[in-house]
Specification:
The chain is of the alpha/beta class. The chain contains 6 helices and 5 strands. It has one domain (11-146): Ribose 5-phosphate Isomerase B, Chain: A (3-Layer(aba) Sandwich), CATH 3.40.1400.10. Helix content is 41%, strand content 15%.
Length: 151
Amino acid sequence: MNYVFDASKPIAIGSDHAGFEYKEAIKNWLIGKGYNVKDFGAPSLDSVDYPDFAHPTASSVESGEAAFGILFCGSANGVAITANKHQQVRAGLAWQNDVASLIRLHNDANIICIPARFVALPLAQQMIEIFMSTAFEGGRHATRVGKIACS
């Protein structure tokens, strides 16, 4: 795989309870491939509030501590909305391979949000591989991305 992010930095990962099993599976899969992963929780299947884990994951990406982020929740909408409150974060919700590619190509997404209740684990792995290996296209898209932040 052609990794387009800074491989010297960890991958930030987080979830709520609905995404916990996917987070654990993906974390172990990435570690098995030799990547450094920083897990921001959730720590179990016990019910939690997704912002408590999406914010630290997004902060890690926003500060440059992490190369990029992966977030899971039931629909992925809650974690995406939360992560996108961070000015330097562009969190994209992906549910199929083409979307995982386009959020990188056109939106320069630095966090991929995956709906654990609606996507099979092998597809989640495929989307993450696509996300990790797809470079931002730039050009006219750079102008658009430059207009996203409020400050």
